[in-house]
Amino acid sequence: MNNNDHVITMDQEVELMTTQMKQPPKLLHKLAGKSSCCIFRVPQGLVDINKEAYRPRIVSIGPYHYGNKDLEMIQEHKWRFLNDMITRIGKPLKNFMDIIVSMDVQIRESYSESLDRFSTNELAKMMVLDGIFLIELFRKVGKLVQSDPEDPVFKMGWVSPFLTRDLLKIENQIPFFVLQKLFHESNSDAKTLPSLILDFFNHMVDRQQQVLKKYKNLDGKHLLDFFRMSYINAKNRISDENSEKPPLTLIQPATKLVIAGVKFKANHQADSFLDIEFLNGTLLIPKINLDDFYSSFILNCVAFEQCYHHCSKDITTYVVFMGCIMNTSTDVSLLTENKIIENYFGTDKEIAKFFKYVGKDVAFDVKKNYLQGLFSEVNDYCKNGWHVGWAGFKHTYFESPWAAISAFAAFMLLSLAGLQTFYTVYPYYHK
Hints:
The structure is a single chain. A 3-stranded mixed β-sheet has the order 1-3-2. Strands 4-5 form a two-stranded parallel ribbon. It is mainly alpha-helical. The protein is globular. It is 52% helix and 4% strand. The longest helix has 30 residues, at 401-430. It contains 20 helices and 5 strands.
């Protein structure tokens, strides 16, 4: 065969290029920058940091991991949950399908990746099956509907933690408006959907009921965004007048801040782990239980905030702040001793490494974030001469009992030497 048989002519190349130009992007479609697009594939740069953090381990929700053979076990139980609901409320399944079919365009625009591989009916089936599964799960856990006391989804201890974490993964979401529509169509509950969701996740995080009541009408783009928003305090919002301030520098690690006179204290009155304050030289930081749930939640929130331009970056700011003050295992130990970190994660070194890598290479605006005032106040405090000098003196001479004893002994020797000099010189001048 002549090699020239495989040579593409210029005209053919131009034709191929023209065809390619007319093909819309599929992996990140051209509407992905709109506020309606809120469910993303995680960028490879973030995946490289922690490959297991963003992929579901036990259940697939939405199109990105649909059909994964490793997730078929819970997939089969979705049909059982759907049958439970349809049997209980007596409405035909077609009602729910028709509702979701009418929202086809809106659903497709919620995903950064093209869903052309799914027909309208296929996509609607997926949304109904996954949406009803979530709603029934929340109802069963919340004791609003009767469930089988031997249901393996609830009786097998290993299922719950994996399932709960999977529901808050960025690639494992369906639009919140889909959940709201399905909930409204099947609703006979006294509770709102937000209340049901918060009660469900409260089995993992144990927040006070008076805090949860504030969010009984909270909205979100999807479950991950909804739960993320329940930690964000409106009073932390940055104003336009502060956005033009000159860039700030990040604060020093905890051990260096202590030498500069800064104290650390757990803030037990805070509603959220984001509510950090700096008062009279003391950093008040809410306690956080660092475990598999929170580490997974934080990682996926940061990924969402990096992908979605139209949301605040509060979790990213928190990660950057914690990465600043926990540079080494010694810094982590200091926060642990002050009851700020409850470590179920691993060693102190692993916690320091976690925050270091989560905050690595993320887009972060130093002069426009909810802690910008706190960064400035801490840095200004550390530049103040007198208390920095006094803190350094205490750290040097009173850090340990032996150092304090040595300093006291030196002081006594100097005092006695001074007295001896005085009594030697005084008689001479007295005469």
